[in-house]
């Protein structure tokens, strides 16, 4: 068996032992009454965002943002051109 194969096997065993340790710690906590037992195995599902709505922009707001961004990028291009001209 190669070094990498041995290392992979050891890492897999380490992961297995860590998961067993976590399960044992949860069981102890549940028995002691600290925490209710976990309701299932695997990863927890992400909680859904409640009450969040997508904010819509009016056409006027969208146009204003577009104009600001055009000015912003024009200024960036100009600054970059000036910087390149100064380096030459």
Provide a compact summary of the structure.
The protein is an all-alpha fold. The chain has helices spanning 3-32, 59-87.
Give a topology summary.
Elements: H1 3-32, H2 59-87
Please explain how this structure is put together.
- 67% of the residues lie in helices and 0% in strands.
- The chain has two helices and no strands.
- The termini are far apart.
Amino- and carboxy-terminal Cα gap:
59 Å
Order of helices and strands: HH
Please give the largest β-sheet. none
Radius of gyration: 29 Å
User: Count the helices. How many?
Assistant: 2
Give the helix proportion (percent range): 55-70%
Global shape: flat
Number of strands: 0
The percent range for strand residues is under 5%
Query: Low-confidence stretches at least 5 residues in length (pLDDT < 50)?
Result: none
What would the average pLDDT be, to the nearest integer?
Answer: 84
The helix/strand class is: mainly alpha
Provide key terms for this protein.
88 residues; mainly alpha
């Amino acid at each position: 068996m190669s070094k990498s194969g041995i290392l992979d096997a050891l890492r897999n065993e380490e992961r297995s032992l860590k998961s067993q340790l976590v399960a044992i710690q949860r069981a102890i906590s549940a028995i002691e009454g600290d925490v209710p037992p976990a309701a299932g195995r695997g990863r927890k599902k992400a909680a859904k965002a409640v009450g969040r709505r997508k904010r819509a922009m009016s056409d006027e707001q969208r146009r204003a943002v577009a104009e600001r961004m055009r000015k912003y990028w024009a200024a960036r291009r100009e600054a970059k051109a000036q910087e390149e001209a100064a380096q030459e």
